[in-house]
Amino acid sequence: MARQSTYTPAYAVRSVAAWGVALLLFFPLGWLMLTAFKTELQAIAVPPELFFSPTLENFHEVNERSDYLQYAKNSVITSVLSTIFGLMIAAPAAYAMAFFKGKHDKDILMWMLSTKMMPAVGALVPVYVLAQKSHLLDNPIALIIVFTLSNLPIMVWMLYSQFKEIPREILEAARMDGATLWQEARLVLLPLAMGSLASTGLLCLVLSWNEAFWSLNLTAANGGTLATLIAGYSSPEGLFWAKLSAASFMAIAPIVVFGWFSQKQLVQGLTFGAVK
Amino acid sequence: MKRTLPRLLMAPAVSTLFLWMIVPLVMTIYFSLIQFNLLQPDQSDFIGLENYEYFMTDPSFGAAIMNTLMLLGSVIGITVVFGVLIALLVNEPLAGRGLVRILLISPFFVMPTVNALLWKNMMMNPIYGVFAQVWIFFGATPIDWLTEVPLFSVILMVSWQWLPFATLIFMTSLQSMDREQLEASRMDGANFFQQFRYLYIPHLGRSVAVVVMIELIFLLSVFAEIYTTTGGGPGDASTNVAYLIFKQALLNFDAGVASAGALFAVVLANIVGIFMIRMVGKNLDK
Predict the structure, then answer these.
(1) Which residues of A touch B27 (CB under 8 A)?
(2) N- or C-end of chain A: fewer Cβ atoms within 10 A?
(3) How far is CA A22 from the centre of its chain?
(4) Which residues in A lie closer than 8 A to residue B84 (C-beta atoms)?
């Protein structure tokens, strides 16, 4: 396309409008980040203070008072392990459906997606009772199992739609050359599927990290994730904005930054490749 | 013989998902027919459909359904409309597009509990909140968002979270538009609105379907935002079906009634799901 008309008045207007919208949408988050570096008095100052000398005091206090590291550890453990287990279960299934076409593949895929339509509350009481009976309440293991299972349908879907794009001829050629099934999977398929596995894993990681329903209902101080920790600040006595902001900042920063770098993969994954 | 390997590969996924579906379902049906209090798990008498009756005649029930549908409809409407508009805005070249993208997409990665507390305290607080300051600046009386317009407040928070998602999908979709076709239509004298109607909208159809589907899945079970802000109140003003069941189960400890409610939620989700699957199925056939 011709680029000569780039710097026109329309370009300027569009830029200003886009920046306006972007800043407006980002504002609550930016405000939270600013507040994290304020003192409590500055945080509730009227009118709000835009310029101040930043302090790290809140971060220290959150760490000392609320065992932040314990919750962060649980967040990392539950999201990473559920992602790994999910990939281990979902990848073979997606591979089978994409490369050995069966009559019922589509039915199976639809059925899997339909399990996702069952709202989490539908399973709340049974899962709670099962966790209670097996002494897994307030234990990260319960969350790992639940996260793995609830993300599984989406993972199979994502992987399936991405595996489908891999030309089958490549695998057939390898087979012709006498590759065993294992060699075929490891040497040919795996390198080709790395991107799909990564984007699926990314999404699963984001979903598990941010998951709040099960964390709030199945865990407390020992097995809780960062989502649980933050919800603990909702009680009125915990109303210290600067500290709340600092805790929130630490809870979301890793995954937000992570999200910035993986936008493209996330779109591909989330839309099952239907939107290009 | 040839089907052995694929079956073997699919077995773990299919069997675990089947258990994940059937075990809770059977247990829920069983619990819904007995008197079951989580504090006295040993006393369980068969009471037939009493739990269902109780749940359905609960005055909160109708409100919860209405709120669930309102939340679904509003958030999907807001995110699709504004998502398309923003995507169109940032689709053309502009200064610092990369950074604009990052700013726009960020709210999607914020965990719901943080989202809720951020809005509750820093935005919507009637005294110190940013909204209150803006209201005062314009000489208006600040409102107490969470008590005066609780459902709207929740809708606002959830929309803030999902608008970036819709925008991101639409942005991606717009990038694959046929540039030459657009050029040609401009040559032929089509104005922006004609282009919008006859080129952009048809092109975006599929991505709208995807956005609606994904949002349906996640918005039916909005929970953390309500749990951390309004607690479903005041009254039932911001209670959705998910929150109502949670209240019965873990606040009232009445697992029997909660299970009856859960089955209802499953039915509701499946009604919504049938529409969704039709839509996606059509889109997948290509």
Answers:
(1) 125-126, 129-130
(2) N
(3) 22
(4) none
Q: Please compute the mean of the pLDDT values over residues B219-248 and round it to a whole number.
A: 86
Mean pLDDT along residues A82-96:
93
Cβ proximity of A228 and A220 under 8 Å: yes
H-run or E-run covering B146: helix B145-148
The Cα A254–Cα B169 span in angstroms is 22
For residue B90, give both structure tokens. 């940032």
For residue B73, CA distances in Å to A165, B38, B79, B124, B273 come to 34, 34, 10, 23, 15
Which one of A29, A37, A124, A206 would you mutate to disrupt binding with B, by most B Cβ within 10 Å of its Cβ? A124
Tokens of B127: 């005294």
Burial class of residue B121 in the structure, from the number of CB atoms within 10 Å of its CB (0-12 exposed, 13-18 middle, 19+ buried): buried
Mean pLDDT of B117-131: 86
Residue B79's pLDDT band, with cuts at 50, 70 and 90, is very high
Q: Are A72 and A144 in contact (CB under 8 A)?
A: no
* Residue from the list B109, B183, B229 with its beta carbon closest to the beta carbon of A255: B109
Asked whether the beta carbons of residue B250 and residue A128 sit closer than 8 angstroms, the reply is yes
Q: What is the distance between the alpha carbons of residues B48 and B58, in angstroms, rounded to a whole number?
A: 17
Q: Would you give the DSSP letter of residue B46? A: E
Residues B148-175: tens digit of each pLDDT: 899 999 999 999 999 999 999 899 888 8
Q: What domains lie within chain A, and their CATH numbers?
A: 9-56 (no CATH), 62-272 (1.10.3720.10)
Length of chain B: 286
> B189's torsion region: left (phi>0), alpha (psi -120 to 50) or beta?
left
- List, in order of start, the domains of chain B with CATH numbers: 34-282 (1.10.3720.10)
Cα separation of B52 and B194, whole Å?
53
Burial of A141 (C-beta count, 10 Å sphere; 0-12/13-18/19+): middle
DSSP summary character for residue B141: P
pLDDT digits (tens, 9 = 90+) for A118-130: 778 878 888 998 9
Q: What does the alpha-carbon distance between residue B215 and residue B226 come to, in Å, rounded to a whole number? A: 17
Give the H/E segment covering residue B45.
strand B40-46
Torsion angles phi and psi, residue B232, rounded to 5: 85, -10
Give the ipTM: 0.85
The answer to whether the CB of B279 falls within 8 A of the CB of B212 is yes
Contact A129 B27 (CB under 8 A): yes
Decide if A230 contacts A248 (C-beta within 8 A).
yes
